[in-house]
Amino acid sequence: MYQAADMAVWQGRVDAEEGPLARRWHECLQAFHDDAPPGTALLGFACHAGVQRNHGRPGAEEGPLALRKALANLAWHHEGHIYDAGNVRCVGDALEEAQQELGRQVTHLLQRGHFPLVLGGGHEIAYGSFLGLARHAELQGRPPRVGIVNLDAHFDLRAGERGSSGTPFRQIAEACAANRMSFNYLVYGISEPGNTEALFHRARELGVQWRGDEECTRDRMEDLLDTLAFFADEVDWLYLTVCLDVLPGSVAPGVSAPAAYGVELSVVEALIDAAKATGKLMLADIAELNPAFDRDGVTAKVAARLAWRIAR
Ligand SMILES: N=CN[C@@H](CCC(=O)O)C(=O)O
Ligand SMILES: [Mn+2]
Ligand SMILES: [Mn+2]
Question: Where is Mn(2+) 2 bound in this sequence (predicted)?
Answer without folding.
Answer: 152, 154, 243, 245
